[in-house]
Design brief:
This protein is of the alpha+beta class and 241 residues long. It is built from four helices and 16 strands. The mean pLDDT is 94. The structure holds zinc ion. The site of zinc ion has 7 residues, from α1.
């Protein structure tokens, strides 16, 4: 069976790529490719947008979605669709994607400092370009949590910590304390190996998204809001500039 090779998984900095159309879904105005640099969304990170070109046609990609082994690229209703087997060239909207990579990485840094200093885990999160939020299992929240988190996150960013991507066998992940605390065991058992994002010395988690290569690339993080979402759930919102 044909599967789409997820190029973003091993190279988050790939902006353009060549691929072949392996399936066309005219009803839903979308095409599946044999390989792609378009992130299909997941783990709180939205899908990429960008362009596809083939022969003398060019179209925007408005949505990207992973379904089974294939990654589908949705084109606007008015666009023509390439034929099965056609060679295409893809270009992701890099400005938007890079801001998402910085935002996503900033959330990992936040996760790392909260765990290092408070020992509480993340329960959920979400992001859009330049803005994100995480929920933590805090019972109580001090009034200066936001200011403290902002200072600590920016300190870690300035340390220019390397961020490494690796693939770790399930059996090995099961004995890694960092992966246990970030609840890698909740990922379906069929996912093996796990893709692991390691902000060296700070935070390590199983994750399918795209991140920058050094914390120095994140920029400046501002905590925009802290709020209580229940007895064991406190939310921290950030922006990246
Ligand atoms: Zn992540």
């Amino acid at each position: 069976m044909t599967a789409t090779e997820p190029l973003y998984s091993t190279d988050a900095y790939l902006k353009t790529f060549e691929a072949a159309v392996v399936d066309v879904d005219p009803d839903r105005r979308r095409v599946a490719l044999n390989r792609t640099a378009f992130y299909p969304g997941g783990g709180g990170q939205p899908n990429d947008e960008g362009l596809l070109r083939w022969h003398d046609a060019v179209s925007r990609v408005t949505a990207v979605r992973s379904e089974g082994p294939l990654i589908w690229h949705t084109l606007p209703a008015e666009a023509a669709l390439p034929d099965p087997g056609a060679e295409v060239e893809g270009a992701i909207d890099w400005e938007r994607r890079h801001l998402l990579m910085r935002t996503h990485t900033a959330l990992h840094v936040l996760c790392g400092v909260i765990y290092a200093d408070h020992g509480v885990a993340v329960t959920g999160g979400n992001m859009k370009p330049g803005e994100g939020r995480l929920d933590f299992e805090f019972e109580a929240m001090s009034v200066d949590l936001g200011a403290w988190a902002e200072r600590r996150v920016n300190e870690e960013i300035q340390r220019a910590r390397d961020i490494l991507v690796s693939f770790v066998a399930r059996s090995e992940a099961a004995s890694d304390p960092a992966l246990i605390r970030t609840k890698a065991d909740l990922i379906p058992a069929s996912v093996d190996p796990l893709r692991v994002i390691d902000i060296v010395g700070l935070d390590k988690q199983a994750d399918g998204g795209t991140h920058v290569a050094s914390t120095a690339e994140v920029g400046t993080v501002t905590v925009t809001k802290t709020e209580s979402k229940g007895r064991h759930n406190k939310r921290i919102r950030i922006s990246v500039s």
